[in-house]
Amino acid sequence: MPAGVYERKPKDYGTKLCTICNNKFGKKQKEKPYKFRRRKCCSRQCNARLSATYCIGKKAHNNQQVERACRYCGKSKMVAPAFANRPYCNRQCMAEDYKDRLTAENHWNWQGGITEKQSRDNLYEGYKAWRKAVFKRDGYTCRKCEANQSGIFVAHHIKERKDYPELLLDVDNGLTLCEKCHKKAHYGEV
User: Fold this and answer.
1) pTM of the model
2) The CA-based dihedral angle spanning residues 160, 166, 169, 170, taken in that order and rounded to the nearest 10 degrees
3) At which of 33, 55, 77 does a domain end?
4) What is the pLDDT of residue 23?
5) Cα 188 → chain centroid
6) Does residue 159 share a domain with residue 139?
7) 49 and 28, same domain (yes or no)
8) Which residue has the higher pLDDT, 2 or 162?
9) What is the extent of the structural domain holding 75?
10) Residues 135 and 156 in one domain
11) Residue 114: CB partners within 8 Å, gap ≥ 6?
């Protein structure tokens, strides 16, 4: 060896006992010394078993559990304080409760069943047939902008229904319009 060159000897870090299997183990070749000092187990398998023992029996918020009862089914359940104000135990109970509470007379916006008289497509007897006849006559195209995409058409009464009830089912009183042109027609832009 040339003069002035220092040969480094590997430092001996000793051996340790594994906390799980009690086997002796030493520092790995490329392992940093500070990591070896912190290590408690000889292998990954032992380390996994050690970390599994830390989590057993622990609950949220240091075991401060609160009892909560479901509004729909009435089942009581112990939950963390963060979930104590939730009224339902799961989404199925919530959906079933909403079905029961928010239908007909129980709904917050119920107005005595006035919408049943004029539901869409059943406004009056013969409305569907009149609408189809108007679409067929106009060739399924908008009379204003000549759009021909299906699904966007509206059968428009030229003379309004409330003013001329006798022309309600008259095909000559109908006009095929797309949704945009129909809005413009009702606001007087067409």
Assistant:
1) 0.38
2) -90
3) 55
4) 92
5) 41
6) yes
7) yes
8) 162
9) 59-95
10) yes
11) none
- Pick the range with the lowest mean pLDDT from 34-43, 45-54, 101-110, 159-168: 101-110
> Do 74 and 128 reside in the same domain of the chain?
no
Q: How many CA atoms lie within 13 A of 159 on its CB side?
A: 11
- Are the C-beta atoms of 190 and 175 separated by less than 8 Å? no
Tokens of 84: 């104590």
Domain annotation covers residue 142? yes
Query: How many CB atoms lie under 10 A from the CB of residue 157?
Result: 18
As given in the structure block, the two tokens for residue 18 are 């594994």
Q: 142: burial class by Cβ within 10 Å (0-12, 13-18, 19+)?
A: buried
Per the structure, the count of domains in the chain is 3
65 and 40, same domain (yes or no): no
Q: CA-to-CA distance for 134 and 73, rounded, in angstroms?
A: 52
Residue with tokens 């013969």: 126
Contact (CB, 8 A) for 154 and 135: no
Residue 119 has pLDDT above 60, yes or no: no
> Are the C-beta atoms of 53 and 20 separated by less than 8 Å?
no
Contact criterion met (CB below 8 Å) for 32 and 42: no
Strand 24-26, strand 15-17: pairing: antiparallel
Q: What integer pLDDT is reported at residue 13 of this predicted model?
A: 81
